[in-house]
Amino acid sequence: MRILDTHLHLIYPDRFSYPWLSSYPTLNRPWHIADYFAEAVPLGIESALHMEVDTAEADMLAESEFVLTLPRIAGAIAACRPENMAFVDQIERLSEHAHIKGVRRILHQAPDDLSQSDLFVENIRHLPDYDLSFDLCVRADQLPIGQMLVERAPDVTFILDHCGVPDVTGAGLDPWRDNIRRIAKLPNLNAKISGIVAYSGPDWTVETIRPYIEHLIECFGWDRVVWGSDHPVVTLTGSLTRWVEATHAIISGASEDEKARLLHRNAERIYKV
């Protein structure tokens, strides 16, 4: 079963600045395309969408332009700043690149009110005019404010990153479980099965993460879920190989059609790859 990875981070410190990496010494090094696909291709991953890596603002556009020149990159999700007055100018420049498929503003490390301002919401509402989606990255405790943003921009296609960032080693399934059930009722929101192992501790097993992934699929259905590696962040508590193997174990009871929808078909439709 071929896989389209919807959440690949590539790190080129010789080209771009990544201020946040100073807090993650094990990640603070080059992570290049050839190294990723050397491990990914034998696992069935044939192509990937590059997810912005929170570069310094001056590097945001250049990052996406660069990764689109690399092999097996089917598209890019670019960094953006909807809280700024110049946001529309920014997405106009992004839309000049046919393979930029969406944008993301990281919210799980931002103040809760950032995404709730009228300016932020009004700017996000312009995305359909440029055929761009919005990857929504919020913590489990921020799911209610994420829901408000999705509700206020009903024409925007949203993708909820990292299973809604559940606190697996802390709060556990609740109240994440109820918040996922509520937010999944919004028809313009999809969910990405990715990133969860980074919040599960180094001793995670398939059974540790199974109830989260199964609940996400139950709530969103097989037509609104996509898969992502979150590489190289996944290496903080495991490896790409271990995460792919765990995914296959968890969905082993699904039909071939359901597996195809999760692993590549939905992503091709949602991101228009």
Provide a short characterization of the protein structure:
The protein has nine helices and eight strands. It is an alpha/beta fold and 273 residues long.
Show the helix and strand layout.
Blueprint: E1 3-8, H1 33-40, E2 45-51, H2 60-67, E3 73-79, H3 87-94, E4 100-104, H4 118-124, E5 133-136, H5 143-152, E6 158-160, H6 176-183, E7 189-193, H7 206-220, E8 225-227, H8 240-250, H9 256-270
Key features of this structure:
single chain; 273 residues; alpha/beta; 8-stranded parallel β-sheet; 9 helices; 8 strands
Describe the structure.
The chain is an alpha/beta fold. The protein has one domain: Metal-dependent hydrolases (TIM Barrel), CATH 3.20.20.140. It has an 8-stranded parallel β-sheet. Helix 7 links the parallel strand 7 and strand 8. The longest helix has 15 residues. The two termini are 18 Å apart. The relative contact order is 0.14.
Query: How many structural domains in the coordinates?
Result: 1
Main sheet summary: 8 strands, parallel
What share of residues is helical? Answer: 25-40%
- At the fold tier of CATH, the topology name is TIM Barrel
The CATH class label is Alpha Beta
Q: What is the C-alpha radius of gyration, as a whole number of Å?
A: 17 Å
Give the N-terminus to C-terminus distance in angstroms. 18 Å
Mean pLDDT: 97
The CATH homologous superfamily is called Metal-dependent hydrolases
Which segments are poorly predicted (pLDDT under 50) over 5 or more consecutive residues? none
Question: How large a portion of the residues is in β-strands, by DSSP E?
Answer: 5-15%
Arrangement of strands in the largest sheet:
1-2-3-4-5-6-7-8
